[in-house]
Amino acid sequence: MSSPTRDTMLLKTPFHSRVEAACALNDWGNWMGYTTPNAYFDVELEYFAIRSTTGVFDLSPMNKYQISGPDAETYLNRLVTRDITKIGINRVGYAIWCNDAGQVLDDGTIFRFSDNEFRLCSYQRADDWLAWNSLGFDVTVENVSTDIAGLAVQGPTSCTILTLLGCENLNQLKPFGMAHYEFEGRPLMVSRTGFTGDLGYEVWVPPESAEALWDQLFELGRDYLIKPFGSHALELARIEAGFLQANTDFMPAEEVVRVGRTRNPFELGLGWLVDFNKPLFNGRAALATVQEKGSKYRFVLLDVDGNKPAEHSFIMKNGKVVGTVTSAAWCPTAKANLAYAQLEMPHGVVGDKLIAEIYYQRELHWTQLYAPCKVIEAPIFKPARRWQTPAPPH
Amino acid sequence: MTDYDAIVIGAGHNGLICASYLARAKHTVLVIDARLVPGGCASTREFAENYRVSDCAQWLSQLDKTVVSDLQLSGAGLVLSDPKSTISLQSDASHVTFDGDTVIGATIDNEDVTDYRSFRSQMRRFAKVLATLYNGRPPKLVERNWTDRITLLKLGLGLKMLGKSHMQDLMRLALINIYDVMNEYFKHPALKSAIALDAITGSTMGPRSPNTVFSYLHKATGEFLSESGTRQVIGGMGALGSALASSAEAAGVEIKLGCKVKAIKKTGHAVSGVELIDGTLLSSKIVVSSADPTTTFKSMLGYAQMEAGMAKRAELYRNRCGTAKLHIALKALPTFTGLNHAQLSQRLIIAPPMDDMETALNPMKYSEISDQHLFDISIPSIDDPSLSPEGHHVLSALVHYVPFSPNVGWDEARQSLTDQLINEISAYAPDLKSLVVASELVTPADFERTHHVTGGNWHHGELSIDQALMMRPFPGSTQYKTAVEGLYLCGAGAHPGGGLLGLPGRNAAKEIIKGGALA
């Protein structure tokens, strides 16, 4: 594993020189120990690049684990709740994994390279859990996070730009598919995946290729209005697209110290990822009991009246608090004031009418607002181009 | 339709006891054991031609009396000696004798005699509270369940009944080490070290290790569970194994010996039987393992067959052991300086002052051989002439602290350590060496190989508070039911295991019957 350059407390990604040059606002945040931009020049404009042209996000800090060996498939199948055998070669699957108590540890994507070779991409560091999971399996788990640099290239013109870069027939790639290319003599892998809910790709290269990749992408994409975007714009896009964020919408079970703060997949609306046809996976026994007895919480998407984001709001029903908001934003394309909330059962069936208690400040003046809101089906933003193959041309 | 209602892995005392209770409840039960004789660690073996000895456990002090009566073991041939006193051998022959609540010795003053009596009565009080937990399944602390609540209530009541000062004393002492408690109670070094020896037997702990008060109390529960006192089984411990096997067979249990289980098999998410080493598959509604938890989970079921958190706990389960056994065939009864013939049949211990005990532990930590050892000696052929040719004798000794695998390797260390140990005992019995016909050293590694106990730990896992009671063997697999459906534990690795109690076997059977898995 090559080690990233480090001259401050935070690590720098292989794209850092380019990211730094592009970061006009000099607004940095700490993402998993890496210095990453919250915003480059304007959050709304960055967001609109994702939705209207192409936005580029440096996702190198994501944790990547190479999982290989004769037992790689059975290993992963015990690790995650969904059936891995259904992920074909050169396909990617979204998955969650739980502890024995059936509480969600994290979510991520699994890339299948061959029968016995996978890559797990996770938000949290998972070295310890993955190592314990390997007991009794003929499998090698290697943290390759710093061996691979990644860019999310997302938006309606993304396919066109990447095709110009040399990714031939990329428009034929189906959602959650992977394709392999060469870039300046080194391997380049593209997956049709992303965290924005739009047509988009993730591009993976060795760190040595990172700066050249960035330079060429922005050069070739200039006419297609390519822009970099930071974590704030991503937050808007992912809320609109219906994606959950670990540590924001749920607490990874390993990090929780207080009783009752963890959540099972059903409580996060992720029950569809739990496959009881598998005889064994971490959390199965506990989740079977949950399925029988029911959960305590429900995770819902709320359409909130008005334009004040219901950040950290209490959600009330008949004057009584029945839940709290985990993420909220005014979403420009959906033109809706959205909030994710965890509600106590039985509240939260689609159509339920509730009240969000919102506090906001204007020029040091705080205002309290009781905004009516309604439980709606997620996600609200689902453009046809996200699922179309061939990807629509521009 | 399955071949059996229950398959019990291991014909050790707990396996046979569990099987007997299940069979008495009209279930079809098969017991399988890799060894050729029943009894597991309760076994007698010929270690030299015509010399036999209890080759693992040598004293019976904790076997539950309800088990003895329920399974009619006396009728099945179990004969015990009278209770033994313990004699701590001193190099100047001023030996110290412990008999019940009395301690006698030329150098023991009256204050220590009185303190010994009050120490015993205090430990009895505490052990009695602990024993309230031993007669049933250990309570879980968080689940709302009336059986567990009642057990906790009984425990609470037991603690309350101690009265304020005794309760405070228990809280103060329970988690500390025997070294400090001994220094608090007594002056005489032999008194301190004799008691400390009981606290470290079968472990890798020294007198200063935490948990040693707990392990002492665990042993002391024997006074409430068993016919009181330390006794010898006539015919060797194997006679207990045979008695348990006959009782089980009389109850309808089928016992297959010399048959090694290769794997515990699952169908879907639940255990459905076992596969033998010859490939035979046997099916059952449940599998009950009396093998130690590491053998059960790691070797037989396999970590890949359980959820990862459970595999992690199983892997972290500690079963180190620093106890070996020395067997000596003698052409005549040896002379121990200052002991008469009657005293030779008692339990003889060699326990140097506690600081030396602690020092003796140090080399073992680094897989080296110590210069000095601790001994718990029995000459069983005095009460039981069947063990040796006429006029000859056998000496059997538990020896602490012996590493599992010394750095130099057992091939090199075995004979020199055997000679060294005989020399160490000879300091108290000058003619011993001249009487030796044959000798044998059984190391922890040998125990692992011959008795199939991981780490050679005959408690089936270190007896420490984090691996005891409601946490034995580890959370998620307590109360005899493991986290894998259809797989149960009934060995010493389950509550209140460690030692020859028979309660894990009995309690497991009761829980299985009550739980309705066989209905």
Describe this structure in words.
The complex is a heterodimer of chains A (394) and B (519). Chain A is an alpha+beta fold and 394 residues long. In chain A, the strands form four sheets. Chain A has a six-stranded mixed β-sheet. In chain A, strands 14-17-16-15-18-19 form a six-stranded antiparallel barrel. Chain A has a five-stranded antiparallel β-sheet with strand order 5-6-7-4-8, covered by helices on one side. The model of chain A has no long low-confidence stretch (mean pLDDT 95). Chain A has helices at residues 16-22, 43-52, 72-79, 127-133, 158-165, 210-220, 231-241, 284-293; strands at residues 27-31, 34-39, 54-58, 63-68, 91-98, 104-114, 117-122, 140-143, 149-154, 178-183, 186-191, 200-205, 226-228, 297-304, 314-317, 320-331, 336-344, 353-362, 365-376. Among the domains of chain B are: 4-43 and 235-318 and 461-515, 3-Layer(bba) Sandwich (FAD/NAD(P)-binding domain), CATH 3.50.50.60; 119-225, no CATH class. In chain B, the strands form three sheets. An eight-stranded mixed β-sheet of chain B has the order 7-6-5-13-14-15-12-16, with helices on both faces. In chain B, strands 1, 2, 8, 9, 10, 11 and 17 form a seven-stranded mixed β-sheet that branches. In chain B, helix 1 (13-24) packs parallel to helix 18 (503-515). At the A-B interface, helix 3 and helix 4 of A face helix 12 of B.
State the gist of this model.
The complex is a heterodimer of chains A (394) and B (519). Chain A has 394 residues and is α+β, with helices and mostly antiparallel strands. Chain A has helices spanning 16-22, 43-52, 72-79, 127-133, 158-165, 210-220, 231-241, 284-293, and strands spanning 27-31, 34-39, 54-58, 63-68, 91-98, 104-114, 117-122, 140-143, 149-154, 178-183, 186-191, 200-205, 226-228, 297-304, 314-317, 320-331, 336-344, 353-362, 365-376.
